Amino acid sequence: xxxxxxxxxxxxxxxxxxxxxxxxxxxxxxxxxxxxxxxxxxxxxxxxxxxxxxxxxxxxxxxxxxxxxxxxxxxxxxxxxxxxxxxxxxxxxxxxxxxxxxxxxxxxxxxxxxxxxxxxxxxxxxxxxxxxxxxxxxxxxxxxxxxxxxxxxxxxxxxxxxxxxxxxxxxxxxxxxxxxxxxxxxxxxxxxxxxxxxxxxxxxxxxxxxxxxxxxxxxxxxxxxxxxxxxxxxx
Length: 235
Description:
The structure is a single chain. With 235 residues, the protein is mainly α. 66% of the residues lie in helices and 0% in strands. It has helices at 9-29, 36-43, 47-54, 57-80, 86-103, 105-114, 120-146, 155-167, 181-196, 206-216. Residues 35-54 bind DNA.
């Protein structure tokens, strides 16, 4: 939801805090079971003041989704545009996705479980964000398929395998557990790329090239919520 005219940065800080609190409540209690009054008590606002920040309870589901998808889509577009092997870009995108999953588990849980509560334009917005991310993943996989790096398979099926492996992580991962985003991405992509590989095809050393990117380009972090400092998007 865009900031109303005349509101300064404090308004946006407060609004984002409300969104994060709502994600926590919805993940713990369920969207349907959490009332606006419950949320108002959690953030210390009366119902009227709360609606001033959120518009509606239904709109909160879009805001929770966007808290993840807006930075993730921005970073995914930048990674997809890098001048690098498509498999390396896929590995970087994987780590970026897992980074925000680990940080925003409540948000992921809510929109995976409660998006069916949305209707009309709200649902259209959510599905559009998801579809764009899927197109970016499919584009990288299609590039690799076009180079005969992978065995013949429908790009859509390859995309679903990538998404299924990553998107279910929220169900079991712990932010302070034994595996971080880089470790999970290394294992996931190792499994996927070896499984997708065409017989006899030479695959790049994806881990070596991903490590080199992170070492040599600290100005281009994989974290979706960190800003890229360089205006030049190159490998």
